[in-house]
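Extended Data, panel c. Modelled sequence:
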Amino acid sequence: MKLSIRNQLPGTVTDLTPGEAMATVHVQLTGGQRVVAAITRDAAEDLELTGGTPVRVLLKSTEVSLATGPTDHLSTRNRIPGTVTRVTTGEAMATVRVRVDGGELTSAITREAAQDLHLTPGTPVHALIKSTDVALAIP
């Protein structure tokens, strides 16, 4: 199956906490970062997720925010450090490529945001992804 989702990072489930309707799934990416996904309990059961299950973390580029300053006091669970490798701007939007340990992420943000953050190749950033914006797939 081919997907339009630009960001697909391999990892392994390290922990799963099921709730009544939702489950939190902790994944260690091959680059060493940890990502938390909040998915429905039904989805976790359908995927038969347990500790050690290999997964692909799927992140739509429009759901990846970028920060250039401190990120200590945010409710966003997933904060992946990286370095900008490319910025492509259009009239309204920009796509920003970010090298992270073990891979690369693409973020689609407004052109104005890219300018306000002074994003250029070499800029250190944190990719911010809410746990509810993370999808999981079984390879």
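The CA atoms of residues 8 and 58 lie 5 Å apart. This feature is highlighted in the accompanying rendering.
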